[in-house]
Specification:
single chain; two-stranded antiparallel ribbon
Length: 166
């Protein structure tokens, strides 16, 4: 379930910012909250998580070092164990590796979304759910530069269009 400004919204109305994700915008933002049952989250993310762990293991082999995902870890846990037994460490891991992957599994940017998720600011794991929240903006609020004609003072120069912000 996704809420934007505390109202339930259809996932087809929502996309995410692929380029510049998480960077501040000059637009008016609103809050969003995604609440997904924990078992659905695990099913949704399991392949992505496994692929990431495979890549991390390859890196570990190359460097000869293991960077534990949480203090005391001697191996990479299953996604279910990670979420259940090491919530705080998983939240940090998620922020580093999965923010946009998670959003891409939920939302299609091929539609013409009304709202665009700009950031993941908080992740909470409860006994029953994973809750992701942050800032979004309304796509219609994007202020594109106005195109205004510019005429050169030189007679041999052809007028051209230049962008100026208005």
């Amino acid at each position: 379930m996704i809420y934007i400004n505390q109202r339930i919204n259809n996932t087809e109305n929502v996309g995410y910012r692929e380029f510049g994700f998480g960077k501040e915008v000059t637009l008016d933002t609103c809050s969003y909250l995604i609440e997904i049952p924990k078992y659905e989250f695990i099913n949704l993310m399991n392949t992505t998580y496994s692929d990431c762990i495979d890549e991390l293991k390859k890196d570990d082999e190359i460097t000869g070092e293991f960077d534990p995902p949480f203090p005391g870890a001697t191996e990479y846990p299953s996604l279910e164990v990670f979420i259940e037994d090491h919530k705080e460490a998983f939240v940090e891991f998620f922020k580093i590796y999965f923010e946009t992957d998670f959003l891409s599994l939920l939302f299609s940017n091929k539609n013409d979304p009304v709202y665009v998720i700009n950031s993941v600011d908080n992740i909470e794991i409860t006994d029953a759910s994973v809750i992701v929240s942050g800032k979004a903006y309304k796509k219609d609020d994007i202020r594109l530069p106005k195109i205004t004609p510019f005429i050169s003072q030189k007679a041999d120069f052809v007028p051209e269009m230049v962008a100026s912000r208005g």
